[in-house]
Amino acid sequence: MHFAYPPRKKSGPPPYLPRSTRIPTLRKSRLKTIAITCVAILFVIWLFSGSSSTKSSTRSSSRHVITGEPPVVIVTVFDSKSVKGDSDYNYIKDVMENRVAYAEKHGKCPLPLKEPLDAGINVDKIGYKTHLVEFTDYELNDTPRSWAKVVAVRHAMAKFPDCRYLWFLEQNALIMNPNLKIEDHVFAASKLEANMIKDLPVVPPDSIIKTFSHLTADDVELVVTQDKEGLSTGSFLIRNGEWAKFFLDTWFDPLYRSYNFQRAETHALEHIVQWHPTILSKLAVIPQDLINSYGTATKGKAYENGDLAIRFAGCTRSSSSGCAEQAKPYQSKWRETFA
Predict the structure, then answer these.
(1) Quick one: residue 203, left, alpha or beta (phi over 0 = left, psi -120 to 50 = alpha)?
(2) Over the chain, what is the mean pLDDT?
(3) pLDDT class for 46, splitting at 50, 70, 90?
(4) How far is CA 210 from its chain centroid?
(5) Domain at 72-338: CATH architecture
(6) 295, 312 in Cβ contact below 8 A?
């Protein structure tokens, strides 16, 4: 019986059979997606880094360069709408004239004021300027009127974009020594280095957050004083610039105004300083008598002859005319020193 031989295996390779066309189609689709993604990424990289030199040059050329004219703007917010008698009316007028007289001493401002509520003092000559406004000039909604100081300083920066420094001095205060200039008395590098109090608890007596021990005069943008209760916002100085805008906008943030701090903007400032190193790193606390002496020693350093200014801290709580009464002994005195 013959058996059929099993079929021989062919020695050549099997004929080529094309694969399903579905796989190449998927691969092509993926490759296309990857290619588009890579192109998009490269475009974004070029947009933000490739043209950075152009953007930086545009930014540097468009950034405002402060000329320092005027050197200083004195900012005061008044509440003259609520005056109740001649005594208070004359007191407000005296304070306004005090500010203008100090500015005139270091520049040119019109004197005397025609009306005690006149605030439009703006001349085109180099010298100190004043920014005297009413708290009702600003929309504060339900927040305490003391917050107006923050807006007023920000307003003054917009009104005098070339000023070097801004000095906020509250209504219930008088400038007593016209010979002291802010840029020399406070901001001169040697004096600021010598006067700034380093490693000081921000909130006395034992706050764990303290002023920087390695701070230099070049670092300082904000100058404040401290009394027995903590930081004082009745008299403070700020260097005009981008940091100042950032700081004031942060301070006036609706979140902080909604906290209902007991001392409103003062406690808000203490909160910000303790929680934001960006602000603490630019803050200098100086001795109180340099810009913020008090009428009495109850709350802080008492005024002495030769001090730049005197504040009647807390006078509004003593009586309706308490501020005018406390200021009375100094009203003729400041005029004598300015003569």
Answers:
(1) beta
(2) 83
(3) low
(4) 20
(5) Alpha-Beta Complex (3.90)
(6) yes
| Cα distance between residue 20 and residue 281, in whole Å | 68
To which residue do tokens 């003054």 refer?
156
CA dist., res. 176 & res. 291, Å (int): 10
Helix H or strand E segment including 271:
helix 264-275
Q: Whole-angstrom Cα distance, residue 266 to residue 231?
A: 7
236-260 pLDDT, tens digit each: 999 999 999 999 999 999 999 988 8
Residue 138: phi and psi, rounded to 5, are -120, 145
Q: Is 226 left (phi over 0), alpha (psi -120 to 50) or beta?
A: beta
Q: Token pair for residue 261?
A: 């701090």
Picking from 279, 268, 288, the residue whose alpha carbon sits closest to that of residue 238 is 279
In the block, tokens 């630019």 appear at 282
Query: What's the rounded mean pLDDT across residues 109-128?
Result: 50
Extract the tokens encoding 87: 């005594």
